[in-house]
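Researcher: Predict the fold of Membrane protein involved in the export of O-antigen and teichoic acid.
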Amino acid sequence: MNNKFRMLATNVRTGFQDKTLLKAFSKLATGTATAQIIGMLSIPILTRLYSVEAYGIQAVYNSLVSVIATFVAGKYEMAIVLPKKRLDSLCLVYISLIISFCGCSIIGVIMLVAKEELAILLNLVELKDWLLWLPITILFNMTYTIVYNFMNREKHYKIMAIAGIMMSLVNLFIAVLYALLYPNDNKGLLYSLTFSQLVPTIWMIFIRRDFIQICTLVKIKEQALKYLDFPKYLIIGQTVNSFSLQLPILLLSKLATPEATGLFSMANRALGIPSRLIGASVQNVYLKEANDEYLTNGRCIKTYINSFIILSCASVILFGIILFISPVIIPVVLGEGWCGTVLYCQCLSFVFALQLIYSPLSCTSRIAGKQRVDMMFQFFRVGLVFLMMIGVYHLFETDISLIAGYGMAMFFLYSLGLYFSYTWSKGEKVGGVL
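Model: C-alpha cells for Membrane protein involved in the export of O-antigen and teichoic acid follow.
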C-alpha cells in the first residue's frame, strides 16, 4: 500500500513538473479565459442594444450553423493534427476547405429555393432574411476551425490564444457599431457572428503564411483515403453526440414545466464555464502532445497521466468551490427568481466535475484510431440518457427526478469513457476486443 501511495505521489509531482504541458496549457487557458470574460462582460451591453426577439433569432440561427458545421467538412478537420509530416497535414487542410466550400455551395442553393419554407418550419418567419447568410457563416466558421487546428498541429498556442481573444473583440465591436448605426435592425448579431470568425482566420494565415505549400492531387487523394475513417464514423457519431446534448432539454420541455427547463439550462450554462475555460484549451494541447508520443512509442500513457492529474486537481478545486458558494452567489448574480438553479447546480456538480476531466482526454479515441468504437459509444449514450431520465421520472414523477436520471447516466458514461481512454493510451484494447 505504501508503494502505491509513493507511486501516486511521484505521478503527481511528474504531472506538475512537466513544464511543456503546463506552459502550453496556461497559454491557451489564458487566451480562452480572456475571450470568455470579454463575452460575459459584453452581455449587459448587447442586451441593451438588441431585443429578446433578436437573441431568439440568433439562437435558432446559431443552432443551424452548429449542426451543419458538424458534418460539412467531412470531419477531416479533426485529423489535421495527426500526421507526422507537415505536408500531409496541409493536404488535410486543403481537403477540409474543398469539401466545406462544396458543401456550403449546396446549402446556398437550398437556401435560395427553400428559405421561406424552412423559416415557417422553424416557426420563425423573421429568420428567412438571415438564412441566405447561412452558407457564408458556416464557411467562415469551418475555415477558422481548419486553420486553428493547423496552428494546434504546429504548436502555435500563443497565436491560437490571440485568435480566440480577437474573435470576441471583433464580435463585440461589430455588434455594437451596427446597433449604433442601425438602431432598429437586429442583423448586427448576424454580422458579428459571421465576420468575427473571418478576421482572426485571415490574421492567422497572414502571420504564418510561410507554412503554405502546394500539395499535389495524388498526395491529397492519398491522405483522404488514409483518414477515410473520420468521415465514415465520426460524422454519424458527432451528429448523434449533438442530439444527445440536446436530449435533456427536449425531454424536460416535454415532461416537465417550462420553469424546470429554464433552471436546467441556466445550471448547465453556469457549470459548463470551467470546461469552456480550461477543458477546451487542455484538449487542444493534449491532442497534439499525446499524438506525438503515440506516433513515437505506440502509446501515450505518460501524457495521459500527466493531463489526468492536472485536470483532476483543477476539477476538485473548482467544483468544490462551486458546490459550497452556489447557494450564496446565484441569488445575488442571477436574482431571486433563479434560486431554484442552486438545487440543479448541486445535483449536477459531480457530473460536470467528471466532464472536465473526461472531455479533453476523450480525444484519445482519435489518436488510437478508435473512431468506430466512439461512434458506438455515442449511440449507447443517447439510449442510456433517454432510458435513465424516463425511468427515474416514472418512479418519482418530479422535475428534479429527470435531472437525477440525467446526472446518473452521464456520471456512468464519463466513468466508462475514462476507462476506455486510459486503456487506449496504454496501446491496449478494451477487454482485448475494442
